[in-house]
Design a protein that fits this description.
Layout lengths: L19 H34 L11 E8 L18 H12 L4 E10 L1 E3 H18 L3 E10 L1 H6 L4 E4 L4 E3 L12 H6 L24 H26 L3 H7 L4 E3 H7 L4 E2 L2 H12 L5 E5 L6 H6 L11 H14 L3 E3 L1 H4 L2
Parallel strand pairs: 1-2, 1-9, 2-4, 4-5, 4-6, 5-8
Antiparallel strand pairs: 3-10, 6-7
């Protein structure tokens, strides 16, 4: 048998060795990027910590001053956007701020800057009583300035003021109560063959449910809730504005009034600018020379301060979500002193 010669030599691809200089440049670039990322991260953390440790509200002056509280937006607890950031009117902050003013001898008066469509019956009444407490316990005057709107609950909280001034373009009034819109989709469900069963302990336990028609009895129950809150509202307007209760009942049909119309009806004192209110306070109440101290809420939480610097998107992502959000808000909003038309402004 003839012996075969086998060649076991392997064939290698000849490669040119990498030059040390290029490898060094690439490594330097990587380290540079890493160092820049570390520096940027440190800068963000530093700004966040600095923001967190800074004062959320400017300290009150150590000399005579007038405190200005801003009631802007819906008067309710828990006003946040879809990211959980506090927005607009903050109820507990406002109540606490008034308590601070009561205990501060340097404070000489309170201005409520109102730009609100109203809000919940409970929150509006709670703020009303806190303003009354300020006046009664300190003997200091309270003034209200109505900006673009002071409707329903927005007017409710302004009523106990020593003087109410309004911008000439302000819409106010809307003295009344709403329980929101109750949706009945039972007919729609029946049309599409959808059956629902609600288990309750009584026939009126689930009244207002979207899947069950409202009975006459349930309608009367809801109306009684609205009527009682309405009587409370017109009673406060009559008492604080020194108007005849029958006259208030006549004008308090829920309509919106212009500033000049409201002045004619006795719902406010003067249609004027904010500067004219300050002049009036100085001349009539001896507050000339007092400082004006704005008391504004800032979200002092770590995430609130951090996210507050970012332009985060907000709002429903689709038309369907917008409709569902509207229904959810209408169904879940309690009995309120809220002007529905101005709520969306």
């Amino acid at each position: 048998m003839e012996e075969q010669n086998c060649d076991y030599r392997q064939i290698y691809k000849i490669e040119t060795p990498q030059k040390t200089g290029k490898r060094g440049i690439r490594g330097f670039k990587i380290w540079l990027v890493v160092l820049l990322c570390i520096a940027a991260f440190g800068l963000i953390i530093g700004l966040a910590v600095k923001s967190l440790l800074s004062d959320s509200v400017a300290a009150a002056p150590a000399e005579p001053y007038v405190g200005v509280l801003y009631v802007e937006g819906v008067i309710a607890r828990g006003n946040v956007d879809s990211w959980g950031r506090a927005v607009d009117y903050q109820h507990d902050f406002t109540l606490d701020a008034i308590d601070d003013l009561i205990g501060d001898s340097n404070n000489k008066a309170l201005i409520l800057w109102v730009d609100s469509p109203g809000g919940g019956v409970y929150e509006s009444d709670e703020l009303y009583f806190k303003i009354k407490e300020y006046r009664q316990s300190t003997g200091r005057p309270v003034f209200s300035y109505m900006a673009s709107m002071a409707a329903s609950g927005g007017y409710y909280i302004a009523a106990p003021s020593d003087a109410i001034f309004a911008n000439r373009n302000c819409w106010t009034g809307s003295i009344g109560v709403t329980i929101g819109t109750l949706y009945d989709i039972s007919g729609f469900l029946e049309k599409h063959g959808v059956d629902t069963v609600t288990i309750t302990s009584g026939k009126n336990k689930s009244m207002g449910s979207m899947v069950d028609p409202l009975t006459d009895e349930q309608r009367k129950i809801f109306q009684s809730l609205v009527d009682e809150a309405y009587e409370q509202f017109i009673g406060i307007v009559a008492e604080e504005r020194q108007l005849d209760i029958s006259a208030v009942r006549k004008l308090a049909d829920g309509r919106i009034y212009t500033a000049s119309q409201a002045e004619e009806l006795g719902l406010l004192d003067t249609v004027a600018s904010y500067e004219e209110l300050l002049s009036y306070m100085a001349d009539e109440f001896g507050l000339e020379g007092a400082l004006i101290h704005d008391i504004i809420y800032y979200d002092n939480s770590f995430m609130g301060r951090l996210l507050g610097r970012l332009p985060l998107p907000n709002g429903p992502a689709s038309e369907a979500e917008a409709v569902l959000s509207l229904i959810h808000n209408e169904v879940n909003f309690p009995v309120s002193y809220l002007c529905e038309v101005l709520k969306a402004r």
